[in-house]
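Example S7 (structure tokens).
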């Protein structure tokens, strides 16, 4: 049976016996990229659940994700996406739970649960995904002709972020060019390049700012003195120091990323 047929059938059923209704404790879920999320629809079970009278469908964009008919799960459908699981052990409590593990950008969208049990009803749930721009790569190039500096920051995340450039209190964003592309696993790959005339020791910062929340991650770039051959030892020293700082930053970012996600999850719980 196609989705529209099931839908028409169940909806007319709903009009006939409209005492039955499906409810959702939460209509909007926000999940961190790579985390797990469980979306919930609930329905009245009465005294004791009669599996033979129960039908549960979940669909998204016209595709079935779950088909649970009279106590039987259609595993052909579930096996087509191994990251999805219908947690049937909560059905007796009147809860149909759809779990997505290792959330990806492709999971973003509107989900519908359609439940028949005596009567029939459905609800929509939307899922958004957030992948922080936690690792920022940067590069400095000097134009040999004009001596202008070209500073580039690149990172991947989701959704699309705005790149802001600062040097001290000065906002240099309008002088930068930005390139968006779709990178690995549908994440946005953002490359922003700033061209400036500058001198040694000037400090630049690039910020990747989330549009909806204003949260940002940033990288700091210090213009090094142009190295002469006599400064090679010093350069090695700074190279080593740089590497130590770099790995320290990576550790910090990993830590922060985890914490941000945990904070998000915590906030989610509080709001709901
Ligand atoms: C997500 O769920 C899977 C399978 O249940 C589990 O192995 C994994 O540790 C979970 N990941 C997180 C981030 O909770
Ligand atoms: C991101 O974009 C930059 C510039 O367009 C490109 O050099 C880089 O390979 C891309 N990275 C990924 C992971 O796609
Ligand atoms: C750098 O300075 C030169 C000469 O003063 C000027 O022509 C050029 O536009 C400057 N470049 C930038 C990016 O400001
Ligand atoms: C980046 O975030 C910090 C801390 O939340 C905030 O103080 C700062 O104003 C933000 N910067 C930009 C450019 O958005």
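Recovered sequence:
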């Amino acid at each position: 049976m196609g989705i529209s047929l099931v839908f028409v059938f169940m909806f007319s059923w709903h009009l006939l016996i409209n005492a039955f209704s499906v409810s959702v404790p939460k209509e909007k879920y926000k999940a961190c990229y790579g985390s797990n999320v469980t979306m919930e629809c609930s329905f009245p079970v009465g005294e004791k659940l009669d599996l033979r009278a129960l039908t549960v469908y979940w669909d998204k964009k016209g595709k079935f994700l779950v088909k649970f008919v009279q106590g039987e799960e259609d595993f052909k459908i579930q096996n087509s996406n191994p990251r999805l699981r219908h947690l049937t052990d909560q059905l007796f409590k009147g809860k149909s739970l759809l779990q997505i593990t290792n959330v990806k950008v492709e999971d973003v969208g509107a989900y519908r649960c359609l439940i028949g049990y005596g009567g029939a009803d459905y609800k929509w749930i939307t899922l958004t995904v957030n992948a922080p721009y936690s690792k920022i790569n940067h590069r400095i190039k000097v134009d040999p002709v004009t001596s202008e500096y070209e500073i580039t920051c690149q990172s991947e995340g989701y959704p699309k972020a705005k790149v802001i450039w600062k040097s001290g209190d000065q906002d240099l964003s309008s002088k930068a060019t930005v390139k968006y592309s779709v990178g690995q696993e549908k994440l946005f790959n953002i490359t922003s390049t700033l061209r400036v005339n500058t001198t040694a020791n000037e400090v630049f910062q690039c910020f990747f700012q989330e549009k909806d929340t204003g949260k940002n991650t940033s990288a700091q770039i210090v213009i090094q003195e142009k190295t002469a051959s006599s400064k090679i030892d010093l350069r090695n020293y700074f190279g080593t120091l740089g590497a130590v700082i770099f790995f320290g930053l990576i550790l910090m970012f990993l830590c922060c990323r985890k914490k941000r996600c945990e904070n998000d999850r915590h906030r989610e719980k509080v709001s709901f």
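Notes on this example. The chain is about 20% helix and 40% strand.
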